Amino acid sequence: MTQFASSTPTSGVSRFPSKPLPPRAGAGLKTGHIDAILADDYRIGFLEVHAENYMGDGGPAHRALAAIRAEFPLSVHGVGLSIGSRTGLDPDHLDRLARVVERYEPGMVSEHLAWSSHDAGYFNDLLPLPYDQATLDLVAGHIGRVQDRLKRPILLENPSTYVAFEQSTMSETDFIREVARKSGCGLLLDINNVFVSATNHGWKPLQYLRDFPLELVEEIHLAGHAEDTDDEGDLLLIDAHDRPVADPVWKLYEIVISQAGPLPTLIEWDNDVPEWPVLRHEAKLAEAILDRLGPASMLGSRHAAE
Ligand SMILES: [Fe+2]
Question: Per-residue confidence at 288, pLDDT binned at 50, 70, 90?
Fold first, then answer.
């Protein structure tokens, strides 16, 4: 396992002021919101972009992101690296990710525990993995390679899933803990993903959170989900990112913050994106919870997760 001294770039001349992600609420950056964000008296805690949207060389998108990066902490979230691919990482995609990271010097870099490519085939989905030793070795090895290329640790995000594999030999939380131990990566806890997967598979979300290595979490995601039904007519939740965060997810978030302390928390809203004030409102709800419960947890006053 390669050890990294810090999450900041280790070489080259910095183009931007150093801005690690603060333990505040942030929002996913949408192009249509950039002017409103820059003009807003309320300074959002940080902004997060999908790396794949900035893998081209130039143009207005890069000029706008440079303006945002000059003023705000930034995190880069990859959605296409296919960390769990059986046919290996795409070296060209990894090079493109490295260029985005070198260019913007983000406070955090994260990717998903999922796969989305096989040989030359690419899928527009984050697909689930079996939780067994072979997959664990594969994923940890890929993360090691990514971290070596980026010269910094990354965060791995827990997935939202709709199917489970009979060949799995360990729980998702044990799998994630062991991947982090082997690779040295940190974790991104998506609490909406926990709620979606728990509902779809019949797990208890609080038990999942009790088993999750919260001490390794460096960022949280919150998002809205849609309700559907499966072929048997049972409730099926879809990680839709198209609406406000649901009440049960806010409750789980309160429990996590009361136990783990204040953590950078991102509001994800990627479909049917509303005007900026709606995202800002969601971010302020998260920030109020961080202010109310985060400091108490730092003093050792913890909620019991039941
Ligand atoms: Fe997420």
Answer: very high
Interval between CA 156 and ligand 1 midpoint (Å): 10
**Could you tell me which of 84, 181, 88, 87 has the C-alpha nearest to residue 131?**
84
Kindly list the protein residues that place their beta carbon closer than 5 angstroms to ligand 1, a single-atom ion: 190, 221
The model's confidence at residue 164, banded by pLDDT at 50, 70 and 90, is: confident
* C-alpha–C-alpha distance, residues 124 and 235, integer Å: 24
Spacing, Cα 158 to ligand 1 middle (Å): 8
What spacing in Å lies between the alpha carbon of 194 and ligand 1's midpoint?
10
Task: Enter the pTM of the model.
Answer: 0.90
| CA–centroid distance, residue 246 to ligand 1 (Å) | 14
| Ligand 1 centroid – CA 77 distance (Å) | 9
pLDDT at position 119 = 58
pLDDT bracket for residue 39 (50, 70, 90): very high
